[in-house]
Design a protein that fits this description.
Helices cover about 25% and strands about 35% of the residues. The protein is an alpha+beta fold.
């Protein structure tokens, strides 16, 4: 699962920001093109954060949509579907933009 690699990257940033303080919650923005399943991401984060300041932290995943433009009908839209097809005509002949985000949005530290 590629979620482990993504979670390792996020954890590095979390540990830097936490500066040794315990982390209770992590909120991460993940683009739809990463094809992340939220339960798999949460499980991976639990595994990679074991023994760190983020052990047992809750994980909130915010899925960032892909913007797309259909070559067949010209429709511009957004989707969080992993497989971008035009919602207007069903064509797979689309240009996509964005949806490749991976960003730590916030962390909640223990009081």
């Amino acid at each position: 699962m590629h979620e482990y690699g993504l979670c390792e990257s996020v954890l590095g940033v979390v540990e830097d920001r936490a500066a040794g303080r315990r982390v209770q919650r992590v909120k991460v923005r993940v683009g739809a093109l990463h094809r992340v399943a939220e339960p798999a991401f949460e499980e991976a984060f639990n595994v990679v954060s074991a023994g760190t300041v983020a052990q047992d932290a809750a994980v909130d995943v915010v899925l960032v949509p892909v913007r797309m433009r259909c070559h067949a009908c010209g429709l511009e839209s957004e989707t969080v579907d992993m497989y971008a097809v035009c919602s207007g005509c069903g064509s797979a002949d689309v240009d996509t933009e964005g949806g490749d985000d991976l960003m730590l949005e916030s962390i909640e530290l223990e009081a």
